Amino acid sequence: MKSLSARFTTFVATVALGGIMAMPVGFAAQNPTSEIISFEAPGAGTAFNQATGVGQGTGCFVVTACHFTINQWGAIVGTYLDANNVYHGFLRSPQGQYATIDAPCADTTPQSYNGTVVESINDLGEITGFCIDAAGDTHGFVRSPQGTITEFDAVEPAVETVPLFINLEGATVGFVYDETSNLFRAFLRYPNGTLAVFVGPGSCPLGFNETPNPCYGNEAAYVSLFGASIGNFEDSNLVGHGMIRSPDGSFTTYDAPGAGTGIYQGTGCPGCTPGSNLFGAIASEYIDSNNVFHGFLRDPNGKFITFEVTGAGAAAYQGTGCGADCPMSLNDSGAITGSYSDSNYVQHGFLRTPEGAFVTFDPSGSAGTQPESINDSGAITGFYVDAKGVFHGFLRRGYGY
Q1: CB-based contact 255:243 (threshold 8 Å)
Q2: Can you tell me the distance from the alpha carbon of 74 to that of 311, in angstroms, rounded to the nearest whole number?
Q3: Cβ atoms within 10 A of the Cβ of 209, count?
């Protein structure tokens, strides 16, 4: 993806919410009763391109917003790169059966690195994602449980439309590149197809192509059943802030304690999508004044707990979280999953239990692990890269305590 790939820098291998907020942060431990299953989408490639540094397989770090999601029934959606270097979406049933998803707008020319990227599935089986066409532009789509695909663009002329999440009612949120403003804006697409495009209060006025410091802009990564959109934005000083857009269009902004105030610091970052749950709690990361990542949990009343995974590095661009295109996921019980970067810049998975204890994990053979989504049963999905640079999906079952 041409313009979007430049947007992110990614590191690879070098129940009561009041009770949740009151719990202390615990220790890290491995859980022998949990089970991690590696899986491969049928058709996934097995090569690594030394010239481009792009690995094939189930999962990806190169394409912007390449996320996996698991719903409450255990169905998983994600993306794979085939042997011809074309991206495809997949749906993995709770029984381990697969369906390939290719949007009509996708370019499937061999060696194009275009295709279809799937982002999110709701509990009814509706799926959202985007296609990459022959020009390298992206277009959003929603796929019905019966397999019908409806494509859309959040603004015209269409350049980049990237949905990130679909809720139970079929509303989707994400970000769109607006050529008129030269800026990434957040969008909300209602179930009836109408669209709202918006930016956070005080969002940077300069665009993505500005030099020397481009403004990445805004994104929405979650929409509640009540219509509240949750995301982040950069201000005129290129500092990140969290934002909540209510159904009436008003905004609440927030900053995690300890968040830095320098360029590309702050609460959230381009692509480090926050997780939220039914009760309105939010989990994500912030970047401090030393460019170190830290996790946070914000309750519905605006109270924060910040947390560090044992084993997380303390140098610049290390820590709890991993920067751009690195999500955290929060279930309705208050369990959080995500990744942390150690002192060697290697990513590992973590689970923070509702009580505040930590479990760290890596699938066998992982040289970099990125958990992406946790459901209310505690099942976690994501992907990892092996020592050869090839990607694999995983499913972790068991809370780990």
Answers
A1: no
A2: 30
A3: 11
